[in-house]
Amino acid sequence: MTAPIPFAHRGGIDGGHPENSLAAFADALARGAALETDVRLSSDGVPVLVHDAHFSRGGVPYPVRATRAATLARHGIPSLADLYQVLGTRYDVSVDVKSRAAARPAIDVARDFDARASLWLVHGDLATLGELRVYDTDVRLVHEAHPPGGGDLVAVADARAHELATRGINTENRHWGSWTRAQVDAMHTHDVLAFGSLVHRTDELADAASRGLDALYSDHVDALVAAVSGDEE
């Protein structure tokens, strides 16, 4: 079985760098992780990598969407193009789409860098993901889902996987603890991947890695990489 992709959530918290910074991303890559980040759109239409809708400027919150990308960069908020220009493209990056308006520009940037096959766009709305699949056939699409509420959970997973496959969506992502290996296998029957987020505690990583998931997200980069590689003590 292929090892899960180890996505360092916002670059990780155990490297001492600000989240969603180029320094955090470079550090996570150097330690063997893939990257997770968030995308919003600046006022000049640039997809920028930031979680919150506002950033601090002299102690005053300013909206990201009303600020130019160059100004955001001076405050430590990189663009997706900055990421590729500085760190290259030979890694997976999972991007949580915080603003739907940022999704197509993000795809356009990845297209410019020939990186669509390693870009995973994450969103909770199936219709939005379906539109993105029409827009681009190569980018990876991830449905952010709630855990199923009851019934035959394997049958539910099978039905979900069928719907995702029909829509051309590659993956379902939900809390790692809500997955069983049988549910993961049901997804794989339809060639749909199963991602697990977010593993907050290092003592849970071995359990998460044992469930057959195709990717895991965690803030703890060293422990995450060790768990997915089977090298944890």
Q: Judging from the principal axes of the Cα atoms, what is the shape? A: globular
| Strand line-up of the largest beta sheet | 1-2-6-7-8-9-10-11
Radius of gyration: 17 Å
Sheet with most strands: 8 strands, parallel, barrel
pLDDT average, as an integer?
96
Poorly predicted segments:
none
Q: Could you tell me the strand content as a percent range?
A: 15-25%
Helix content: 25-40%
Give me the number of helical elements. Answer: 9
Tell how many strands the DSSP assignment holds: 11
What is the SS-derived class?
A: alpha/beta
Terminal CA distance: 21 Å
Give, in order, the helices and strands: EHEEEEHHEHEHEHEHEHEH
Which descriptors apply to this entry?
single chain; 233 residues; two-stranded antiparallel sheet; globular; alpha/beta
What does it look like?
The protein is of the alpha/beta class. 35% of the residues lie in helices and 23% in strands. The strands form two sheets. Strands 1-2-6-7-8-9-10-11 form an eight-stranded parallel barrel, surrounded by five helices. The chain has a two-stranded antiparallel ribbon with strand order 4-5. α6 links the parallel β8 and β9. α6 packs parallel to α7.
Which helices and strands appear, and what pairs or packs with what?
Layout: E1 5-9, H1 22-30, E2 34-41, E3 47-48, E4 54-57, E5 60-63, H2 69-74, H3 80-87, E6 93-97, H4 103-112, E7 119-123, H5 126-135, E8 140-144, H6 153-167, E9 171-175, H7 181-189, E10 193-199, H8 205-209, E11 215-218, H9 221-229
Parallel strand pairs: 1-2, 1-11, 2-6, 6-7, 7-8, 8-9, 9-10, 10-11
Antiparallel strand pairs: 2-3, 4-5
